[in-house]
Amino acid sequence: MQTASGLRFEGSAFWVRHRHREFGPFDYEWSRDMLGIEFLYRRKKFGEYCSDDEISADLKEFKLPMRVVEVTAVVCGSIIFGIIHGFSQTEKRAILLKNLQQSDLAQFAANIEGFQES
Q1: How far is it, in rounded angstroms, from Cα 17 to Cα 10?
Q2: Residue 80's closest CA among 110, 108, 49, 105?
Q3: CA nearest 107: which of 36, 3, 2?
Q4: pLDDT digit string, tens, across residues 48-99
Q5: Ranges of each domain in the chain
Q6: Where does the chain have alpha helices with state H?
Q7: Torsion sign across C-alpha atoms 64, 117, 90, 51
Q8: Quick one: angle between helices 66-84 and 89-102, nearest 10?
Q9: What DSSP state is assigned to residue 62?
Q10: What is the pTM assigned to this prediction?
């Protein structure tokens, strides 16, 4: 039985479950010049990471619930942090859990499916 809140991962894509409804897929891909990472919602770009000093994201046009936007920001930030620092999947998961809990999003940290650890 699915819980009201959580995260579901399939490869690099993830869905946010909020109030028994799933939002996604959220994903990322390297920019064409391979110098940055683009954030995607339903295959449409909503932001990008260019450097530690240049990160942008705007989900306003999708009219998502604020809690979904908050969770997405934490997940995307955690993923990018893990990639940049060359963390293992286990380390990436630990960072994600810590960041969700520190952001008062523990109900999402408690219900994560499909995050592959190696």
Answers
A1: 14
A2: 49
A3: 3
A4: 998 888 889 999 999 999 999 999 999 999 999 999 999 999 999 999 999 9
A5: 6-113
A6: 66-84, 89-102, 106-109
A7: negative
A8: 140
A9: G
A10: 0.92
